[in-house]
Amino acid sequence: MSAAHPLSPLSGERVRVRGGRERDGCHTGPRRMRRAQPWRTNRARVSRSKATPAEERLWTALRARRLRGIKFVRQCPIGPYFVDFACRELKIVVEVDGGTHSTEEEIARDTARSADLESRGYRIFRAQNQEVQDDLTGVLDTLLDFIDGKIA
After folding, report:
1. Are 14 and 22 in contact (CB under 8 A)?
2. Could you say which of 13, 18, 58, 71 would form a disulfide bridge with 30 (CB–CB 3.0 to 4.6 Å)?
3. What pLDDT, on the 0 to 100 scale, is given for residue 121?
């Protein structure tokens, strides 16, 4: 019979580990937390300050849980990409596309980006700048239908 390590918890005993959370005695190591990445934070700040008028208008409707209490963030890093708006809880990405998304190269880039985001479990809703400017209510209604799964 081998003796237990003098500092190991007894079976079922709760212990505090680094990070301040209690864990049961079978935990094998400290919980790994994501570290801050200053370059990502700075890039997101710059992107927020350079938002298009359509993005600003949509953000006014999405911020502070104004759309059915759903929390959205803007210029959110997901993998190697920064998305215009995201709801992390529902894994929804909202992209506002302007006139620059019409060339073959940009369409191919958007397709690859969409595939990567979808592989991470996100669903992507796209709206055109002009749609947001001309019919924000219609865009928000369509977004709610998308969230509810009524449209793909």
Report:
1. yes
2. 18
3. 97
